[in-house]
Design goal:
Blueprint (H helix, E strand, L loop, with lengths): L1 H19 L2 H38 L2 H8 L1 H7 L8 H14 L3 H16 L10 H11 L7 H10 L8 H23 L6 H10 L18 H20 L1
Helix pairs in contact: 1-2, 2-8, 3-5, 5-6, 6-7, 7-9
Length: 243
């Protein structure tokens, strides 16, 4: 989708420049801001390297487990179906920590790892669990308290005032995150979107696909498998009686 958006913006700029006779200005802006983009990217290297390295040190030092235990009361409220000692908790803790610091590049690998760990607790192959939906909602609302990346971008183009956005960011992220969490909890308990009801609908339509790598304790057993098991038990009983 982003590729289409960028291509559309470029095409619109070129067309508008050709129609208004300012195509030379469009080309000048392309070359001028291409250089600016390189300067900003190089300016971000130091900040991103520092915080990405800091997150790596935290992971190697075992601070992610301690962070997971620290926020475990909140995690139990938001993700009640996740076992306390499951690796998904530490992955999500690192993901939230990176997002709080506003380091999107460092947060992405932890988010992917957290979603992969949550998938191990999903008995289905393509139906998101409540925990996965909650993680996606929090990710979408962009929980950020210290926007390091944005501050680095601002400091690259201006000398003073790069940290002026901290208070507005805290207010905005608080409102968006609370809204996302509340809406997710509401939808999770609605009859139409309740996970158990979705499973029943998929099972009735015979389109439910089970997760072969499921590691949880409550697997879903399809009706035909139940019938086969019952028939196998009946055959065993009949054979035992004949003997």
């Amino acid at each position: 989708m982003m590729n289409y958006i960028w291509v559309g913006l470029v095409v619109i700029s070129v067309v508008c420049g050709a129609l208004t006779g300012t195509i030379s200005d469009v080309l000048d802006s392309v070359f001028a801001f291409a250089g600016t983009a390189v300067e900003i990217a190089f300016g971000l290297i130091g900040v991103m390297a520092f915080f990405c390295g800091l997150m790596n040190v935290m992971e190697k030092a075992g601070l992610c487990e301690k962070l997971g235990r620290l926020i475990s009361p909140l995690m139990r409220k938001l993700f009640p179906e996740i076992p306390p000692d499951h690796p998904a908790n530490s992955a999500m803790a690192l993901y939230f920590a990176a997002n709080i610091l506003g380091i999107g590049n460092a947060a992405t690998p932890f988010g992917l790892k957290a979603m992969a760990e949550l998938q191990k607790l999903n008995p289905t192959k393509d139906i998101a669990t409540n925990a996965q939906c909650m993680l996606m909602a929090i990710s979408t609302t962009s929980i950020t308290l210290i926007p390091v990346t944005v501050m680095a971008l601002r400091s690259a183009v201006q000398v003073e005032g790069a940290a002026e956005i901290i208070a507005p960011v805290i207010i905005a992220t608080t409102v968006s995150t609370v809204t996302g969490v509340v809406c997710t909890l509401i939808f999770q308990n609605m009859k139409r979107w309740k996970w158990e009801n979705v499973i029943e609908e998929e099972m009735a339509a015979d389109t439910l696909q089970l997760n072969e790598n499921y590691e949880g304790t409550n697997p879903i057993v399809l009706p035909e498998k139940v019938e086969k098991t019952e028939k196998a038990e009946e055959q065993k009983d009949d054979a035992a009686k004949q003997q």
